[in-house]
Design goal:
With about 550 residues, the protein is α+β, with helices and mostly antiparallel strands. It is built from 11 helices and 19 strands. The strands form 4 sheets. The protein has a 5-stranded mixed sheet. Strands 3, 4, 7, 8 and 9 form a 5-stranded antiparallel sheet that branches. Strands 12-19-18-14-15 form a 5-stranded mixed sheet, with no helix packed on it. A hairpin with a 5-residue loop joins β1 and β2. α1 runs antiparallel to α6 and α4 packs across α6.
Length: about 550
Amino acid sequence: MGAPEPRAGVPGPRRGHGVGAANVRWWAALSGVLAALAGVLAGEFAAGLVSPSLSPLSAVGAAVVDFAPGAAKDWAIQTFGTGDKAFLVVSVTLAVVVLGAVSGILELRRPGLGVGLAALVGAAGALAVVTRSLASPGAVACALAAGIVAMSLVRWLVGRLRRDAVPAGQPLGSRTHDAGPPPAAAAPPHRPGRLARRGFLRALAGTAAAVALGGALTAVVRGASLAAAAARDALRLPAPASPAEPVPPAADLSVPGAAPLVTPNRDFYRIDTALVVPSVDPGGWRLDVTGRVAGPVTLTWAELLAQPLVERHLTLACVSNPVGGDLVGNALWLGWPVRELLARARPLPGADMVLSRSVDGFTAGTPLEALTDPGRDALLAVGMNGEPLPPEHGFPVRLVVPGLYGYVSATKWVTQLKVTSFAADTAYWSTRGWSERGPIKTASRIDVPRGGARVPAGEVTVAGVAWAQHRGITAVEVQADDGAWQPAQLGTGISRDTWYQWMARIALPSGSHRLAVRATDGNGEVQTASVAPPAPDGATGYHTITIEVT
């Protein structure tokens, strides 16, 4: 029985050793994937040397964040929480792998098509870099280098594959010598020798080894450049001119499993738009106060540290935090009151907003009154829980404003304050459907027991935290199975700008029970039972859990 007819575009089977023709498409796809990964690593490695705060991969990721529908962003934050950036990196990497495989197959079918696709992807990366505020000639060159490496490798690898898998002079997809004898007038087709057939495999293996080594080197270079470890480790923060008030003994209820009164830096939530943590040299940092001011001001790092710094416990919360979520934390911050800096610039009449800008281009619009209020400790923070700001939390300088969700106030790696108005300017999230001003809503959470927990029958300890920054909490109540609300013991609290711990002991018989919590703020307003999603101005509703009492 004769050999089967080959499918269009795929060489017929060959005898002997080397690259199997039946699998030639898979080899082409693998070649494209390796070429694409090599291109990405080349761009990231180069960025680690010349553009540590902006690489092709981070630029593409930021562009995805910018143009993704709001519902998609909300889903990612709700689903992955502080792991949303890892999810984005994995998604972008998978897209690169798929595009690489397609480019390899296209290059196999028609030389030049795969190279063209790689060129388009490289151009998209360069375009993404150009749109970032940190764009520089070096950053653009890194993106172009990534594209060139991918183009060159897919052409070389697939070219080797074509020579090994298809006889010389025979077009891809035609009948091979195995399907019948060649015409008498035609020269016999070329049979690649063992050495030639193994050449592609050696090329592929060498490329894979180079990609693995490049990945290790890139991780070292990027890690070293992004940490800004030398400057941060050498930094000794000045003592505060106004230390924080001592934590009242009755503020910490010490319930095992409940959130600690002060959140350790390693556990503090992180939500921002930076796929790669910006590397900012404090020695070269400066903050420009511009816009509707009588006198623009430029503040340097040395000048900031020379100011009378204050130390305050302040709770921050993300507007994307769902009811009962953990995108909230309390820390001890060291910084200079923003009102002192704005007083130097002297805002002009008509200004009602300050547009803060991060080194990575993120912007937040904060009500001017919140930054100039003498009773509100809005800070240019340089320290967090007794140490310099961690890089992922804004080193060297960030904004911390109590009473407002972070998307309108907590700009990290801040480099500019533009005094303007809500009518004249819009911030990053305000252009994406979120409300302009973002005051924090009264909220409470059950930490103990966890939802779904099984606990012994009898008196059950229920505990958690409640917050209403800049208003404070005056009462917390707990409800079991839609019964009467029972008052909880409320910790003294550090200040009205921090969260409060609470605890209650409820007698529960065996069975399944539903627990709920609500808080009352310092203005006497009870937390609303109305359920609303985070968008556009913060989630509402009671946090409820179900437990099994045995």
